[in-house]
Write a structure and sequence with these properties.
It is built from 4 helices and 11 strands. With 178 residues, the chain is of the alpha+beta class.
Length: 178
């Protein structure tokens, strides 16, 4: 029996802050069913349509290339390879904290969003939140995936890919802030 991939919120590229569109860190992605029967978001180089690594800058593209590829079809979204060593931008990934039908965000997620006070958007599923900000990160990140283990939240600055939707969360800045 064939499984249907989850839907993804349409990308609103015009809402994505300039700080996240500069440089050469953009990728495209599409849903793929993994061997463990879970839907994953593998990422690809917008120019070549080949699988890309979030650790290899040679495989990344410009933002306009990713948006063009997305608009041409065959992709579920766009995103960026996190490279804080180059641009000092970090991303917080908050999962399962938003009701996709009502838009209501949990109080614990709102506390994190308000404390960071930077550009915040809805994840492709509509159930999560991404907050992008300029570092430095005040707590020690683990050496693997850059998780803020002391705080129990995921903060990524390198060696990771974060999706971008441009679905801005009202009441938060429209720009990436410190």
């Amino acid at each position: 029996m064939e499984k249907t991939p989850p839907s993804a919120l349409p990308v609103q590229a015009h809402n994505i802050p300039l700080a996240l569109t500069q440089g050469h860190q953009s990728l495209v992605w599409r849903w793929r069913l993994a061997a463990d029967d879970r839907w994953k978001k593998p990422h690809y180089t917008p120019r070549t349509r080949r699988k890309a690594s979030p650790t290899n800058p040679q495989e990344w593209g410009a933002f306009n290339e990713a948006v063009t590829a997305y608009c041409q079809g065959g992709w579920d979204g766009i995103g960026r390879a996190m490279d804080a060593a180059t641009d000092n931008i970090y991303g917080v990934d908050l999962d399962k904290c938003r009701n996709p039908l009502t838009g209501e965000i949990t109080s614990s997620a709102w506390s994190i969003i308000k404390s960071i006070d930077s550009y915040t958007e809805v994840s492709p599923s509509g159930t999560g939140i991404r907050v992008f900000f300029y570092g430095p990160v005040p707590l020690k990140l683990d050496g693997r995936g850059n998780k803020l283990t002391e705080a129990g939240i995921e903060v990524y600055g390198e060696r990771r890919f974060l999706t971008l939707t441009g679905v801005h969360v009202a009441g938060t800045p429209t720009t990436v802030e410190e």
